[in-house]
Amino acid sequence: MTIFIVQAICAFFFVSDILGSVIGLRASPIAWQTRELIEILAAVGLLLGLGLGGIALNRSLRHRQRAEDKLRRASSAFVDVLEERFAIWSLTPAERDVALFLIKGLSISDIAAVRATSEGTVKAQMGAVYRKAGVSGAAQLLSLFIDDLMDGVTVETLRDDEAA
User: Fold this and answer.
1) Mean pLDDT of successive 10-residue stretches along the chain, which has 164 residues
2) Considering the entire predicted model, what is its pTM?
3) Degrees (nearest 5) of the Cα angle 13, 15, 18?
4) Pairwise CA distance, residues 35 & 131, whole Å
5) What count of other Cβ atoms lies within 10 Å of the Cβ of residue 43?
6) Got the DSSP string for 120-133?
7) What b/e readout covers 16-38, taking b as 16+ CB neighbours within 10 angstroms?
8) φ and ψ at 67, to 5 degrees?
9) SS3 151
10) Is 93 exposed, middle or buried (0-12, 13-18, 19+ CB in 10 A)?
């Protein structure tokens, strides 16, 4: 915060000095020693700000990289859970496609369009997926996978991760 205040004072000094020269509002001249001291302090403040900005940028980039790594691991884990569940349920390739589209949140008509099949076929395949999974809808289907991914995760674990 101190560096920010120093930079603000320096910026005010430079801007007021320039405006004073351009508009001609120089009230009283400043001794050259004082002017040099102010400019040196301004330069030091700007260099400190540059250094701290670099440190903040570096931290931000590291934080982003950690978040991307976590997302990549979570994505990989989710695919593993999908494949495991689909194998346990003995889903056909068509049922796997429909299940995946349901988990992604697509509607029956969207799934039919993507798969180039009729809505009736999609409904029949949805019914087979729900029956094999032991659920009654897409929300419960997705919930099964979320439960698998969050196995052992507690509120305290989430708070610890946020603090890190």
Assistant:
1) 76 77 70 81 80 89 91 81 90 94 93 95 95 92 82 60 60
2) 0.54
3) 105
4) 82
5) 11
6) HHHHHHHHHHHHHH
7) eeeeeeeeeeeeeeeeeeeeeeb
8) -65, -40
9) coil
10) exposed
